[in-house]
Amino acid sequence: VPLLPAGAPTTRPRYAWCRYFDAAAGVGVLVDLGTQSDFAVQRDALRVLDDGVAEEDRMLYRGEFVEYELAEDAGTHGCLVVQGIQGWPLMFEAALMFDKQRQERMSASSTQIAPGRGRGLSL
Fold first, then answer.
1. Which of 91, 79, 89, 88 is nearest to 3 (CA)?
2. What percent of the chain has pLDDT over 70?
3. To the nearest 10°, the Cα dihedral for 7, 89, 104, 115?
4. Do 23 and 67 touch, CB atoms closer than 8 A?
């Protein structure tokens, strides 16, 4: 899946940490690890591994390290894509995955019948 449409400004991956993110408003601030410059980030720039994640669930945690692409078009800067470092999930997405796995395990264990119980006579 291409990150940008044809003819879009060139990008380069960078690393940053999240200084602040308002989950209700869907906006925050990243700090570049190399330059220490602040960049605004919006919820719609957060790339997730699971397309089924609702837009309103997407967020960053304060202190989370991320990889991002910075548009450089005639001196204009802005975050185009923010993702987990080297393709790993963002922290909120990892938390959602763990919750889903836990719920699946709990559901599976509650439907299993213990040996010797509920299946005929146990002598």
1. 79
2. 72
3. 130
4. no
Whole-angstrom CA distances from 119 to 22, 43, 115, 122, 123 are 53, 52, 8, 8, 12
Looking at the DSSP bridge assignments, the partners of residue 22 are: 27
Query: Which element (helix H / strand E) includes 5?
Result: none
Distance CA 47, CA 107 (A): 29
Tokens found for residue 76: 């204009």
- The string of pLDDT tens digits covering residues 84-107 is 999 899 999 998 888 888 888 888
pLDDT digits (tens, 9 = 90+) for 3-23: 444 454 555 678 999 999 999
pTM for the model: 0.69
φ and ψ of 103, to 5 deg = -65, -40
Q: How far apart are CA 116 and CA 123, in angstroms?
A: 9
Alpha carbon 23 to its chain centroid, in Å, reads 13
DSSP 67-101: EEEEEEETTEEEEEEEE-GGGPPPHHHHHHHHHHH
